TrEMBL record:
Signal peptide: none annotated. Keywords: Cell inner membrane, Cell membrane, Ion channel, Ion transport, Membrane, Transmembrane, Transmembrane helix, Transport. This is Small-conductance mechanosensitive channel. The keyword Signal does not apply. The keyword Secreted does not apply. It comes from the Bacteria. Its main location: membrane. Residues 108-172 form the Mechanosensitive ion channel MscS domain. Residues 184-265 form the Mechanosensitive ion channel MscS C-terminal domain.
Amino acid sequence: MLDPLQSLWRGFLSSIPDLVFLAVLFMVVRYIIRLTRLFFKGVELGRIRLENFDRDWAAPTFKILRFLILALAVVVAYPYIPGSDSMAFKGVSLFLGVIFSLGSSSFIANMVAGLSMTYRGAFKQGELVKIGEVVGTVDDIKLMTTRIRTAKNEIAVIPNSSILNTNVVNYSTLAASQGLVLHTVVGIGYDVPWRDVEAMLLLAVARTEGLKAEPKPFVLQVSFGDFSANYEVNAYCDDALRMLSLYSALHASIQDVFNEHGVQIMSPVYTQLLPAPAADQPAPVVRPA
């Protein structure tokens, strides 16, 4: 009964130098990581400036270096782990490595995509973006996934590998400095002079609170339809997060202005305008063209 205990005690005594080495290595790695964190925290706050290095890269760069430091520490510490030279330990390590390699293809793809997006600078937290068919504010950016908060207060979780292969539209990048162009198209009949239509559209923009007077809004005649000419009004705003509400306000202003001037918006297009039916007559059927 004492033989196993004696064997364990002798193994512990013989492993004391290795355990001391592991303890020292742990302390050294811990302080290296702490110093690295302080350095990149200074970069993030602007106290330390690096040429051609964006402050937003500080946090992800620290995470990458921390992972590399820990991986190097594990490689150095492996030979000093008690029992690491035994066949049982090697067998378990090989088994875990095979499992990780078989099940980590998507994990590695999402992780690499997350790192690529960070340094590509496609978007930042708090910005309004469109990723595929999802439009919303960037709520959180993780190494594996990105969370988007939609206008309906829904959270869309998108894998980073999917974002890397999808077109990304960022509405916020130039909104504050150069303005975001809001645009909408209306169809107006050919009997209304185009100069009058442009004037009414510009008046609707001027009535919409939140749209900028400078740069000046403008109107484009984009196409000629069978029954109407299509006009596109363009106006600038400096807050991309208000885009949906500004679109709604602009559409309301356009309807008000055109109704005041007795001009009908030909969308959808009707073949004819019928008078209101009498009380004793059935309502006529208006068929779209």
